[in-house]
Amino acid sequence: MARGINKVILVGNLGNDPDVKYTQGGMAVTTISLATSSVRKDKDGNQQERTEWHRVKFFGKLGEIAGEYLRKGSQVYVEGSIRYDKFTGSDGVEKYFTDIVADEMQMLGGRGEGGGGGGGGNYERSAGGGQRPQRQESAAPRRQAPAQQPQPAMDDFSDDDIPF
Amino acid sequence: MARGINKVILVGNLGNDPDVKYTQGGMAVTTISLATSSVRKDKDGNQQERTEWHRVKFFGKLGEIAGEYLRKGSQVYVEGSIRYDKFTGSDGVEKYFTDIVADEMQMLGGRGEGGGGGGGGNYERSAGGGQRPQRQESAAPRRQAPAQQPQPAMDDFSDDDIPF
Amino acid sequence: MARGINKVILVGNLGNDPDVKYTQGGMAVTTISLATSSVRKDKDGNQQERTEWHRVKFFGKLGEIAGEYLRKGSQVYVEGSIRYDKFTGSDGVEKYFTDIVADEMQMLGGRGEGGGGGGGGNYERSAGGGQRPQRQESAAPRRQAPAQQPQPAMDDFSDDDIPF
Amino acid sequence: MARGINKVILVGNLGNDPDVKYTQGGMAVTTISLATSSVRKDKDGNQQERTEWHRVKFFGKLGEIAGEYLRKGSQVYVEGSIRYDKFTGSDGVEKYFTDIVADEMQMLGGRGEGGGGGGGGNYERSAGGGQRPQRQESAAPRRQAPAQQPQPAMDDFSDDDIPF
DNA sequence: TTTT
DNA sequence: TTTT
To answer: In which element (H, E) is residue B64 found?
Structure first.
């Protein structure tokens, strides 16, 4: 039985466009690099800003939505859980990865009444918006999000990695 | 000793400008009416939207910041706890109130890169921004936020209500 | 579209046994009264304890599980959302209710290794544990949980109230 | 200014006794290894259990409390934030670490009324409970918590690492 | 790499 | 009463 709670709540901005891949079974696996920053005073009383870069993964339908609507700079609310993985590289060295597996996502940044006249939403509906993305194993490659942690090769993923 | 966790996380939009009041001790008590809406399918399969209106209270310094930066329509992240109160009206009828007592707040809605050219932030710094508000028991009254639940009279509040 | 986040996380103890009812459609609606307490210093520096009594509702399968496993005194983790309702009584007076609608629940209090010898788990599997409860509209009434807020009559509920 | 939300909520059990160290400035840095497990169905429909081992760090006063009251097997609620760190080992290889920096903690597992007669709390007050631990750089080493990720040497820490 |  |  499930035993324990593992919950993460993030609000941050994307450092790059989402990276969308598909498993052999055709399921979307979308990865974003999400920045959250905070300030604290160091021991000398100076303001210190620190930014964490979270690697967030969206699977399945949520992955398609994330890939379609999110863009570099978008502000987003993410809820999910932490997953730690270990891969052994071809050089025999063990590498550790930490992912946030998202199970809820919400785009932020509508215009409030306080906001002045002109335009400017937070996200741009991608061309061809409404329709469900085709399977596109060989789609034009988007720029890979350079997350703080290096990523394992996509070959290491299979449909078994979909966590639900 | 503390026993239990009582935590609320909200992301929503203000239905009205904040209502800022001050206790006799000079502490700010800012109240906002915050909408969160969600959809579900009813038993006939129709999409039904439902909006909850949360009455959120900010005390002290956080109350001053909320009163200064938030405006009707602003999108905001709030973290806090639920507090249930009971007041007996002058007619002898007991009335129940539920408040979210905020202990963290963050304004949302910066411009992402996806957002086009023009202006449009989410909030407007109020005139006289930087300086700390004077004690203003008799300040010009702002429009009262008509929260879902009616509010008890401010006379019912004292410095003892500051929850920390 | 869904707009906003309305999330509640509670860890507390039940003030009474769960109250299990069934809608006409046969869905369980289980209500518990959950205490969370905290301490703060009042303005005279004295420790003040304050307890909030949350009325938490579980629907459907989760309601059956809650009714089966939870008992007065049980410690439980609950995740859900806040719902405000207004009912007009037969006397024409409007009454306001606040519920936590649970969508996740986890019983706490397994025996850690640090805990000494003897018995004592946190919850007691009810007689007839494993099997799904029969429909029991006319089951022997359990003692009603004396939540802080009085409850509207069950007649006011219908299958439409199941929030998903 | 702070920008973003980075919040983690965990409920789990300790895999080992806490590891308490002190910085040169005399501040406690307590590390625990916390297990949260969950089940999902794999693509063949089999129940699969997966356990994440979180490395949770408590600083300062909270670190002293954690070191004093938590024990292997204890069930605990932790709230904090995720912190990613990179250390370059003496072999020149970069290593990545993920920590949960706790800012709230609560022990779980009090005796509910449902729990039978005998003993058995969840945690054991350590001998010498009430008094504040002495500075004990050279205290008898406790068994190191075997977290999923290996730990950097304590020499890599300084008072600057206290995140508040 | 984001954002303010 | 907000927002999309």
So the answer is: helix B60-69
